[in-house]
């Protein structure tokens, strides 16, 4: 299985960083010009971006990627998977939150990916790693 990992320290408490990264709209800032739109709310009215929610990613009206939140443990972990994509066999995104001290949080973002076409996974993961590093740097300045 091909995977990549990005670690980033945020100068904010774990609760604040988790709240930021648990919102689908945050990724519009992190990964601009890619747009992220929630297309299905979770069953939890208090957390519409929670377990079972689905977001679409893309540009303008073309948003071919769909991701579903499969696990959400407040201030600890978020997991999601790509759904309904014929090009991807397996995709698991895991975002882990660790309190370093009361005003510092270490975020570890891991993505496992297996594309259906050979050799494509490593290329996609390299692009994702670059985008996530840049996106996290942008977000770290906002907290």
UniProtKB/TrEMBL annotation:
InterPro entries: Polyketide_cyclase/dehydratase, START-like_dom_sf. SUPFAM superfamilies: Bet v1-like (SSF55961). Gene3D superfamilies: 3.30.530.20. It holds the Pfam family Polyketide_cyc2. This is Polyketide cyclase. It comes from Acinetobacter pragensis.
């Amino acid at each position: 299985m091909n995977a990549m990992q990005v670690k980033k320290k945020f100068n904010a408490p774990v609760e604040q960083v988790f709240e930021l990264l648990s919102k689908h709209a945050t990724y519009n800032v992190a990964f601009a010009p890619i747009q992220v739109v929630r297309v299905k709310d979770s069953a939890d009215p208090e957390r519409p971006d929670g377990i079972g929610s689905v977001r679409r990613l893309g540009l303008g009206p073309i948003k071919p990627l769909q991701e579903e939140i499969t696990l959400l443990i407040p201030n600890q972990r978020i997991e999601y998977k790509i759904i309904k994509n014929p090009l991807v066999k397996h995709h698991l995104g895991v975002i882990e939150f660790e309190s370093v001290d009361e005003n510092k949080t270490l975020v570890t973002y891991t993505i496992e990916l297996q594309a259906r076409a050979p050799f494509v996974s490593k290329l996609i993961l390299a692009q994702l790693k670059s985008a996530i590093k840049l996106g996290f740097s942008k977000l770290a300045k906002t907290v």
